[in-house]
Amino acid sequence: MTQSGQNYWSPERWRFLLVVFSGVLGGAISGYWQASFIVALLVYIVWLLYKLQQLHSWLEQGGKITHTPDNNGIWERITYHILNTKKQSTIRKQRMSSLLKRFQGIITSLPYATVVLNGKNEIDWANKTSSSLLRLNLKTDRGQRIENLFRVPKLHKLLEKNKQKEIEISSPYNPQIKLAIQLIPIEKDLKLLIARDISERVHLQEMRKNFIANASHELRTPLTVIAGYLEIMHADEALPDSLRIAVESASEQSSRMQDIIEDLLTLSRLENSELNENRLTEINVAQIVETLCSNEQSLDENAHKLIKQLDHSLMIKGNELEITSVCANLIHNAIRYTPAGTKINIIWRENRQGEAVFTVADKGEGIGPEHISHLTERFYRVDKGRSRDAGGTGLGLAIVQHIMQRHGGRLYIQSRLGQGSTFSAIFPQNFTVRRSSKESSTVA
Ligand code: ADP
User: Is the CB–ligand 1 distance for residue 424 below 6 Å?
Assistant: First the structure.
C-alpha cells in the first residue's frame, strides 16, 4: 500500500475506459450504439455493486484483517482506511480501558467509601470500602436512590442542596461509628459521595470536651467556697492592713477564675448540645441591644459614645440567651479595648442579601492582620496583659463564634491598626423575621 492516493484511481480509470471501449466495439460490430453502451455500463454497475456487497459482508463479519476482500485500486484503499481507523480505535479503547482499570483500582483501594451517583441520586458505582462502611452491595443496590437506603435527614439535606459540603453523622447501622460524608458534584448528572470513618477523632474530641467540662465543674464549687471566705475576710474590719491587700488580690484572682470557669462551662454546653430548631423564639435584637447599651453606659467609667442605629422591625429566630451573649461580648470588647471617650457605632440592620447583621465598629487601636484569624481561638489574646487587666477571659469571641455557627451564621472581623475594628455577627436569611417597621437612631 505504498501507492499515492492518485494512483489508486488509475485501475478504476482503466476499467472505465474498458467500458467505453466495449461500448464502442459493441456499437461498431452490431450497429446498435446506444444499446451496446447501456449494456457495457450495466456490466460496470453490476461489478461496482458486487464490490460494494463484498465490502459490506466483510464489514458485517467484523472487518477482520485476515479476511479482507481481494481488491485493488480504490477498493483496496477504502479497505485500508477502514482497517486503519479500526486499529486506531482499538488502540484508543485499550488505552481508555487500561486508564479506567487503573482509576478504578485507585478508587477501590482508597480507605474511604466512594459512591458514584447520577443526577437522581441513584447509585451507579461504589468501591469496596462502601460495603464495609456503608453496607452497600453493588449487585443489589445499583440503581437504588441513596436516600432510600440511608434515612438520615442531614444526608437528605446535603443531597438536596447539591453543593460541595461535608457533614458528620452517626452510622445508621451502628451509632458508635461516626462518619464524615462529603458530597462532590462533578457534572449535572454525576456526583461523588465520599464517607470516612472519623469515630476515633470524634471520640478524642468528646474526651477532651468532657475533660474540660468535668474539670470546670469540679473546680466551680471549691472556688465558690474560697471566694465566699475571701469576701467574709475582706468585710471583716478586724483584718490587719498587712493582710487586706493580699486578700483583695486573692479575691480578684478568684473572681477571674470564676469568670474563666463560667465561660468554659458555657463553651462546653454550646459544644455538647445542638440548637433545638423547635425551641427557637423570635428575638427582638434591637431591644436587647438597647438594654445592654444602657447597662454598659452606667458602668462605663470611660464614657464612650455609643451611636446606635437599630432596625426595630428586624427580628431573628434563635436562642435568646445566646444572642444576648453575642451582642454583649461584642459591645463589651469595643468598650474594653478602645480609648476613653471614643465613638462606638452599633448597628442592627438587614444587608442586601437579606441577612440580619449586628455590627459593632470602634475607633480603637485596631488589630494586626496576623491576629485576625486567631481571635476566635480559646485563650487567644492580642495583648495578654491588657486583656487580663481589663478582666477578659480570652474566651468571649470563641463563644460568639460557636453561637453564630449554631445559628447558621458567621462572625466577620475587619480591623486596621490605628484605625479601629468592626465585628459583624451575620445571621442567615432563613433566621430573620420582619415585624411592624420602626427604626431608631440614637446617640447615648
Ligand atoms: P477577652 O476576654 O480577652 O476580651 P475575647 O475572645 O473577647 O477575649 O477577645 C480576644 C482578643 O481579641 C482580646 O484579648 C483582644 O486582644 C482582641 N479584641 C477583641 N475585641 C477587640 C476590639 N474591639 N479591639 C481590639 N482588640 C479586640
Answer: no
Identity of the residue numbered 180:
A
CB of 316 sitting under 6 A from ligand 1:
no
Give the mean model confidence (pLDDT) for residues 275-299.
90
For residue 333, the CA-to-ligand 1 centroid distance in Å is 6
Residue nearest to atom 20 of ligand 1 (CA): 333
Termini Cα distance of the chain: 98
- Looking from the CA of residue 376, the nearest atom of ligand 1 is 6
For 173-205, how does the pLDDT look when each residue is reduced to its tens digit (9 = 90+)?
888 999 999 999 999 889 999 999 999 999 998
- Residue 176 corresponds to which cell in the numbers above? 458508635
Domains of the chain: 7-96 (no CATH), 110-197 (3.30.450.20), 201-271 (1.10.287.130), 280-443 (3.30.565.10)
The pLDDT mean for the chain works out to 90
pLDDT at 437: 58
Using CA atoms, how far apart are residues 167 and 161, in angstroms rounded to an integer?
12
Give the global pTM: 0.69
395 Cα nearest atom in ligand 1: 6
Q: What is the DSSP letter of 110?
A: S
pLDDT number for residue 1: 44
Q: Which residues touch 49 (CB under 8 Å, ≥6 apart)?
A: none
Atom of ligand 1 nearest to the CA of 394: 8
Q: Is 421 in the pocket of ligand 1 (CB under 6 A)?
A: yes
Range with lowest mean pLDDT among 120-134, 303-317, 426-440: 426-440
What CA dihedral angle connects 204, 208, 213 and 217, to 10 degrees?
120
Which residues, other chains included, contact 176 with Cβ-Cβ below 8 Å and sequence gap of 6+?
170, 199
